[in-house]
Amino acid sequence: MSNNEQSTSNANNESEDSFEKFGGNDVNYNHLFETVTCFASRDEAFEWAQKIAFNNGFALIKASNGAKNRKQPELLGSYFRCSRYGRTRKKIDPDIPEKPKKKGTPKCECLFRVRAVQNRANDINGKELIVWNILTSEKGGYHNHKVTKYKDGHRHFAGLNAEEKEFVRQQVRASIPPRDIKNGIHQRTPDKPQPTSTQIYSAVNKFRREVRGTRNTARQMLVVAVAANYVEWHKTDSETKELSHVFMAHPEAVKLFRAYPHVVLIDSTYKTNVYKIALVEVLGVTPCGSSFLIATVLLPSESEDDYGWMLLRLGELLSCTGSSIYAFVTDRKMGLIAALESLHPSTPHLLCRWHINRAMEKQALSKENLMWYKDIIMHSPESGWYRVINASIIDEFRSTWECFSEKWEEMALYVISTWGKYRKKFVNCYTNQYFHLGNTATSRVESSHSLLKAWLKSNNLNFDTMWFRIHSMLEAQHSKIRYELEVSRSRPRNGDRVFSLLQGNVSINAIEIMEEEIKRGIELGNVLEEHCGCVLRVTHGLPCTCALIQLQRTGKRVHIEDVHAFWRTLEYDNVGVPPKTDDDELEKLFEEARACDPAKKRVIIEKL
Questions:
Q1: For 205-228, what is the HEC assignment?
Q2: In the chain, what are the domain boundaries?
Q3: What is the pLDDT of residues 68-127, one digit of tens each?
Q4: Contact 392/413 with Cβ under 8 angstroms?
């Protein structure tokens, strides 16, 4: 037997073995592809053949591109083979051990094929054209495997087409998570086999790599932030040269902060990115009662130095305005407390009462694991903890503290050792001396954490993806704030005549706070002067209860001058920014730099 005959015999035997191994159905599909239609191009012929293949449970691939016709070399031919044609590629280096795969390859050396060839033909006007025809062969009409029954997730049947890939790109730009993108594709084409989550994630990652280019995720985050006009500072590690500190503020948030710098709340959250770096949220308060995210800060640790770097950057946002922060509200982070005492020694600093009360409850339960015991310690009308911290004057605080320490000695020792030196940061008689707009807890920041994580929808994000989703959240937040300010400016509300001069000039939230004070004053009745304390005038910059009741009784009205400027600021664009800018000085520096020696110019560029 000759070598050619022996190789042909071996190929036939292998074909028969594979036919039995992969469950061929012994069906000849040639008749489906027999046609006299002439196609204008190879792609058009392939599209026609692929549609027939899809309808019958298999897919085709272009196995050869531009092979010449033997009889007529000037004409081309091409094979359309079954997608399971071919075999597994062998290792390039046999010395490297191959990793075991859980799933086998779909390739099974299927020999099904049809051929597309070029031919000459004449159109109706007799003009000669080059067209493509589909030809079949007897040997190539069978599959040696089962045809596909369930097409969802199949690379050829359910793969993303060009239109769906563009839809994925649009969704990624809108910060839509991949699982929601998958649902969107299903709603657009419910009758089409659906792609798997893996295919969606692959398309999303491919698009992000295209956008990112050669930059890593940290560098990409900085690039897109600068492109969006963010105010950004960053710091790299001196040894590893990796990004260690990042401070970013949305341009709209910077305007809001310069208009409303009065109260700043700071807290950190975790599980927001794949690198497990803490994300610090710095919040401000608007006159309409909403919170706004001033800045997001990535810090490697919660040390005094790291928080100090953050506070310096925060101060630089206000450096051009001459404004100052009235109060900080945080929880008991020792590094942050130390940094505030160092950089803002004269600015009031309040500790979150909610966290303090939870710590007290936990300590009470550790002594006696009984809920009623904890409730007595916290809520006792004579010696309860809440009565201690709610004392409105210093004498009342001292007397209630004596009762508490006599009744609960162990708890008093815990308070002295843990919270004693911070009493001026959370007891009412001290905090009522500061302008804090009612913010004595970090509840606003906790709510912001929840909102942030609802937008992130994952705790395993890269920096650039995290930035895009935070940016989308901020855009929605700023839109809501603008709407609330416009409502206060242009929609006067029906209310007491005493506030008629404030309509459209003061936020609705301020009027609602004063209305509640009037109700409280009416309930107090004759003991109003004893319990008013004129606290609202200090903490909120609004007329206190006794003043409001007096105005109402005499038929007078609250004047705009009686309300703090914070509540009267209903437009925040360019508020606090001096009319003179530093553009002239920058131009002088540029001119000096242009006149420098080329070597010095290079040094300046590297420093920038």
A1: HHHHHHHHCCCCHHHHHHHHHHHC
A2: 3-92+101-141, 162-212, 217-348+440-478, 354-431, 492-568
A3: 555 555 567 788 888 888 776 665 556 666 666 656 677 888 888 898 888 888 777 777
A4: no
Q: Treating both helix axes as pointing N-terminal to C-terminal, what angle do 409-418 and 353-367 enclose, rounded to 10 degrees?
A: 140
Q: Domain 217-348+440-478: give its CATH superfamily.
A: Ribonuclease H-like superfamily/Ribonuclease H (3.30.420.10)
**Is beta strand 349-351 parallel, antiparallel or unpaired with respect to 327-330?**
parallel
Count of C-beta atoms within a 10 Å radius of residue 208? 17
Q: Which helix (H) or strand (E) holds 372?
A: helix 371-379
Q: Is 249 helix (H, G, I), strand (E, B) or coil?
A: strand
- What is the tens place of the pLDDT at every residue in 159-181? 788 888 888 888 888 778 888 88
pTM for this structure?
0.75
* Amino acid, single-letter form, for residue 321: T
Query: Do residues 230 and 247 touch, judged by C-beta distance below 8 A?
Result: no
| Strand locations in 287-417 (E) | 291-299, 327-330, 349-351
- Report the C-alpha gap between 31 and 17 in whole angstroms: 25
Whole-number Cα distances in Å, 109 to 15, 19, 21, 46, 105: 8, 9, 11, 21, 11
Name the residue among 75, 182, 181 with its Cα closest to residue 129. 75
